[in-house]
C-alpha cells in the first residue's frame, strides 16, 4: 500500500499544476481566457497540449474539462477528441517504429509489464479500459506499438474511447461553468483519474496474488494426500 501511495503522489502533483494558478489568480486567468474564448487560438492550444500527452505529463481530464468550460460542449468534445487522438497515434507510431527502447523513455518498465499482463487478459480492448487511467493509458499505447498491433485493431478502440472521455469531461466542464462551480469541477477532474488509478492498481495486485494463493493451496492439498 505504501508503494501505491508513492506512485500516486507524483500523479497528483502533476495533475494539480493546472489548478493551482486557477485558485491563486482566478480573476486574471478568467479575463485572459475571455479574450480567446471560442477562438481558434484556444482550440489550437488545447490540441497541441493533448497531442503531447504521450511525451509529457499532460492531464487530459483537466484539459478536457477546462475546454468544455470555455467552449460549447460539442466544440470542446471535438477539440479534445482531435488532440487525444493525435497524441495516441503519435505514441503508437513512434513505439512501432523505434521499439521498446523508445517506449522505456516515456514509460517505466513496471508500467509496461503491468499493461502487458492486462493486455494478455483483455486483448486490444484493454486500450479502452486504460484510457482514463493516468500512466497506464500511455503505457498501453506504447506497448501496442512495440508489439506492432495492426492499425485497424488499434485505431477503433482508441477513437471510440477518446470520444467517450472527451465527451464526458467536456460536458462536465460546460455544465460546471453554467452553474458557477467550475473550480470544483476542475478539482474533481483531478480526483477521478487518481481514483481510477487506485482501483486498477488494486485490481492488478489482487490478480497477481491469486495465482500464488492457488499454488499454495495446491501444495497444501498434495501434502495432505
Describe the protein.
- The structure is a single chain.
- The protein is mainly alpha-helical.
- It has one domain.
- 84% of the residues lie in helices and 0% in strands.
- It has twelve helices and no strands.
- It has helices at residues 2-16, 19-24, 26-36, 40-51, 60-70, 73-98, 100-106, 109-122, 126-130, 136-146, 151-178, 182-224.
- Helix 1 runs antiparallel to helix 12, helix 4 (40-51) runs antiparallel to helix 5 (60-70) and helix 5 (60-70) packs antiparallel against helix 12 (182-224).
- The protein is globular, with a radius of gyration of 20 Å.
- The two termini are 37 Å apart.
- The model is unreliable at 1-5 and 210-225 (pLDDT under 50).
Provide keyphrases for this structure.
single chain; 225 residues; mainly alpha; 12 helices; globular; disordered N terminus; disordered C terminus
Rg, rounded, reads 20 Å
Strands, total number: 0
Low-confidence stretches: 1-5, 210-225
SS element count, helices: 12
Helicity, as a percent range: over 70%
Please tell me what the overall shape is: globular
Portion in strands: under 5%
Count of domains = 1
Biggest pleated-sheet summary: none
Order of helices and strands: HHHHHHHHHHHH
- The N- to C-terminal Cα distance equals 37 Å
Structural class: mainly alpha
Mean pLDDT: 75
Can you lay out the helices and strands and say which pair or pack?
Blueprint: H1 2-16, H2 19-24, H3 26-36, H4 40-51, H5 60-70, H6 73-98, H7 100-106, H8 109-122, H9 126-130, H10 136-146, H11 151-178, H12 182-224
Helix pairs in contact: 1-12, 4-5, 4-6, 5-6, 5-11, 5-12, 6-7, 6-10, 6-11, 8-10, 11-12
Amino acid at each position: 500500500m505504501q508503494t501505491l501511495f508513492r506512485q500516486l503522489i507524483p500523479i497528483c502533483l502533476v495533475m494539480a499544476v493546472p489548478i493551482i494558478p486557477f485558485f491563486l489568480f482566478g480573476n486574471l486567468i478568467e479575463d485572459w481566457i475571455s479574450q480567446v474564448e471560442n477562438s481558434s487560438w484556444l482550440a489550437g492550444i488545447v490540441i497541441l497540449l493533448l497531442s503531447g500527452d504521450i511525451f509529457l505529463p499532460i492531464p487530459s481530464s483537466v484539459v478536457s474539462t477546462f475546454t468544455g468550460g470555455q467552449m460549447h460542449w460539442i466544440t470542446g468534445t471535438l477539440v479534445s477528441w482531435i488532440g487525444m487522438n493525435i497524441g495516441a497515434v503519435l505514441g503508437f507510431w513512434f513505439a512501432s517504429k523505434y521499439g521498446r527502447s523508445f517506449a522505456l523513455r516515456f514509460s517505466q518498465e513496471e508500467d509496461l509489464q503491468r499493461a502487458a499482463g492486462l493486455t494478455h487478459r483483455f486483448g486490444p480492448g484493454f486500450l479502452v479500459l486504460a484510457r482514463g487511467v493516468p500512466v497506464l493509458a500511455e503505457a498501453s499505447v506504447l506497448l501496442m506499438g512495440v508489439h506492432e498491433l495492426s492499425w485497424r485493431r488499434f485505431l477503433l478502440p482508441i477513437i471510440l474511447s477518446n470520444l467517450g472521455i472527451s465527451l464526458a469531461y467536456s460536458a462536465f466542464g460546460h455544465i460546471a461553468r453554467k452553474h458557477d462551480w467550475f473550480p470544483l469541477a476542475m478539482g474533481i477532474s483531478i480526483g477521478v483519474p487518481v481514483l481510477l488509478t487506485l482501483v486498477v492498481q488494486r485490481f492488478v495486485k489482487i490478480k497477481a496474488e491469486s495465482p500464488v494463493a492457488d499454488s499454495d493451496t495446491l501444495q497444501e492439498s498434495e501434502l495432505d494426500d
